[in-house]
Amino acid sequence: MSEGLFTQLLDLACGIFLLAAVLVLWRRELAAMVRVFAAQGLALAAIAALLARHEHRWDLLGVAVLVAVLRAGLLPRLMRRALVAGGESAETEPLVNVAASLLAAAALTLLAYAVARPLTELAPSPATRALPVGLAVVLIGFFALVTRRRALSQVTGFLLVDNGITAVAFLAASGVPLIVELGVSFDVLFAALVLQVLTARMRAAFGGTDLDDLRELHD
């Protein structure tokens, strides 16, 4: 693969990766959020696969396959099951409206590029120049985490943060060891399983998955 083609494909994968994070803020339908998260998982796997192909690292290719299976397949499936258990279809009352959320995403992306600029100048390369994308997704994930009220929406924000951190690891250090990725992936999988149980219990106790209802648990 030529350097030019690698750069173009990597930029495309990173663009889709960032766009998916923005779409999570734009869409209110929980099922659509799950589909967007699955698409982001594929983009993350593509980033890892491109780096593996460019650097001839077959261990990184194994990590890419693992990312695709877990983050584009298994986790979205568990999230859909949690969505069915929760019995709700949309994020009806986010703390920040869609227009303001998109403006915040743009501001956070600019902040990520400003913060990451000194790092990219240390060792300029196609991968390091894409580093701000991973950081932007981390910031957008945190924003989604604190501005959404439904359990599934907040967990989606948490998973965006995890995807962003993984992307930063791929782009800054050409990936992480397979055993580390396995450990992190199982932690995320465990969190998704807890989500499924939590949404079912909240649905039974409160009739919904609005986390503000947990305030009723205080004495």
From TrEMBL:
<feature type="transmembrane region" description="Helical">
    <location>
        <begin position="158"/>
        <end position="176"/>
    </location>
</feature>
<dbReference type="GO" id="GO:0005886">
    <property type="term" value="C:plasma membrane"/>
</dbReference>
<dbReference type="InterPro" id="IPR038730">
    <property type="entry name" value="HyfE-like"/>
</dbReference>
<protein>
    <recommendedName>
        <fullName>Hydrogenase</fullName>
    </recommendedName>
</protein>
<keyword id="KW-0812">Transmembrane</keyword>
<feature type="transmembrane region" description="Helical">
    <location>
        <begin position="127"/>
        <end position="146"/>
    </location>
</feature>
<keyword id="KW-1003">Cell membrane</keyword>
<feature type="transmembrane region" description="Helical">
    <location>
        <begin position="6"/>
        <end position="26"/>
    </location>
</feature>
<keyword id="KW-1133">Transmembrane helix</keyword>
<keyword id="KW-0472">Membrane</keyword>
<feature type="transmembrane region" description="Helical">
    <location>
        <begin position="58"/>
        <end position="74"/>
    </location>
</feature>
<feature type="transmembrane region" description="Helical">
    <location>
        <begin position="182"/>
        <end position="200"/>
    </location>
</feature>
<feature type="transmembrane region" description="Helical">
    <location>
        <begin position="33"/>
        <end position="52"/>
    </location>
</feature>
<feature type="transmembrane region" description="Helical">
    <location>
        <begin position="95"/>
        <end position="115"/>
    </location>
</feature>
